[in-house]
Amino acid sequence: MHMLFRTLLHVLFLSRRRPDLGHYDVARTRFITLPTDLDINRHMNNGVYFSIMDVARFDMLVRNGVWGIMRERGWYPVVASETITFRKSLQLWERFTIESRVLGFDDKAVYVEQRFVKKGADGRPEIYAQGFIRGRFLKKSGGTVPMAEVVEAFGAGPGDGLPEWIERWGQDVALPATRAEAPSVWS
């Protein structure tokens, strides 16, 4: 329930009061580790990281105008794949920032990088965790939004395209269309 509250707080109030962004700018969303975020080891639960990344992506979508475009066209975003790497734990009441940015597109998905950043002992930003999301856009009327329509709506991606490793990751984690096509390690 608290994650729903956090999402609504950001989407309905905080995001709308923060500066607008370009579609491919880095969005910085501030958070604090709450008691409901903790696991038995008294640090942020690994599953909570993904939930907070969701909230930060909604903040980015509102601030960069993509949320409005999606609503006009009857689209909504879904996560197809995600991965995260942890460096340090976030403790109770620690303040941190999630930096979110769109990396680019392939023929099926959009890729987003998100970093959990906290000021280090020396005062410089320190990355505590880093996640990558492979997402799709679906139509409320049914079906997937073709990437050509996504690019037309939001503009060409930043830079020289996706890094080679993230394209490989996207291909490696994509599930086949049918169960029969899926390789299995289970007998």
UniProtKB/TrEMBL annotation:
PANTHER family, alphabetized: PROTEIN THEM6, PTHR12475
Signal sequence coordinates: none
Q: Which CDD domains match?
A: 4HBT (cd00586)
| Record InterPro entries | HotDog_dom_sf, THEM6_lcsJ_thioesterase
Descriptive protein name: Thioesterase family protein
Q: Name one Pfam family in it.
A: 4HBT_2
Q: Which organism is it from?
A: Agromyces soli
Q: Which domain of life is it from?
A: Bacteria
